Give the backbone structure.
Amino acid sequence: MRRISRLRRPSGLPVPAAASRSSIAPQCPQATALFSSSSQTTIPSSSRRPTSTTLRQLPTLGRFYSSEKDPIPQSLSEGTTSEPIPTADEANWEDVPADPSQLQQIYVPPPKYTYATRPDEVSDPSYTPAATFDGLETVGGLGNWWDQQHWSKVGNFMGFKPRTKVTNPLLLEASVRRAVVEAFALRQAGREDDLTGVWPVGGQEELQRTMELDVQCAEDGVPSINGDISAIVDGLQWNDEVATEASAPPSPAVKGSVFSSEDILKFKEAWTGRWKYTSLVDPRFRFAVTKRIFQLTGHLVPDHQLSGIADVQTLLHLVQKPPKPNTLTEEIQKRRQDLVQLPNVSIATKRVTRGDKEKALGRFKLIEEELKKRDLPVQGHGGARKNREMQILQGGM
Amino acid sequence: MTIRALEKVSVGQNGVGAFILQCKRMDIHYCDYSGSSRGMNAFIKSQLAKFASTHPQIEFAVSPRPRKHPVLTGHYINGKHKSICVKNMDSLQILKKAELLRDASGEKIRKVNKPITSITESVRGVWSPYHGKGMAV
């Protein structure tokens, strides 16, 4: 979603905007120089051997992508993965040099192409061109350049949406409650503009703070929070220092103590059901809540459903709804166990082919033997072209 | 003592002593994505469990056939089979087709143009010109 991605302040590198913008232009010709021989070629005139490969430095960093997982909130990672998710702590924001000249050192571009002198342009009279490949030295080429990582982890891409979706209903409920509390706290503090801004993901502490608060809801759907909201409001202030702290590597003690379903159940006992009646009619407030839920859990509420969300209960119902099964067999396995358990019904998950039918009969072993005897492929057609027999019959090869 | 063959008392007929359903197996093919399979998918989800449990003598094989229309195929104990394409039908229409396949004998459909058919031999026998006393003209 384009609209959401504009919010993504943590993505890319926290370099000055001017520096990152200016990096796009110089990078393009270099990229073309890597793969085309026509541009930026310097032919040494004095020797027939290519000069030693030199490493060029890019003026500034561009935008790098990484396959590394980006964070889901540390406090919510219990239901999804057992390993601590490589979060922004691996991105190591503290190491980001503010000076663009330092950024030049992070990225090592591939070696520059060099070209040998043409045989007819060699000045050395004793030179005779080689007639065979044997004994020649191999020069140039990228080698295994792509296999090595030539950039720092600082440049790793961090998306607004977490890579893993939270599916545990209890964790989802805690996240929704957290989003509502945070959005309302901002509104109560008079920071209306920050409702549509980007907030730090936070960690376990932030989640615990919101879970401990008592949220009540009036008849008209306006919530009221009993407790100190100043800490929550302060935690929602985005700046680079906060981001660095939030993404700093958690201490081992914190790593081991993420919230489990039981912990949330304990908190949930203290919650009254009234908080679910909080009104979400105000589109600004609703956007703040749904945006936060997307950031924390990876659940994006579709646009066509947004208008139907009047209160938190509806939103919670939407978010907690289990995903649709992809295939009919999946659905039957999940929901229609009575059909699966009937002795006279067999359900195949994939298409039943001719080979499957032969195997069911026990005839495939014989077919396999005969095929092997004739040195024919057992699986597939062995790369035979279509209508080959017809071609041969008609005198073709 | 001379050997005498057992005399046939009656002609065996399905349903006189025991009834054996002629349909032994039913293949149910559907597609997960095509709109023409919507009714078939609903049939599998909602009707098939009841239909299969009331007919334990029929084997039901459900399997996907991607990018194809849904098909019901009945296999019969005489070795023949009968297929019905059930594209765009709703689940109740498909249930009717499944009942049709269940009730079919597997025989080829023939035109029935005699009011009465019988498997009992005629008492009079078939007329022959070489037997009898002949007729004086």
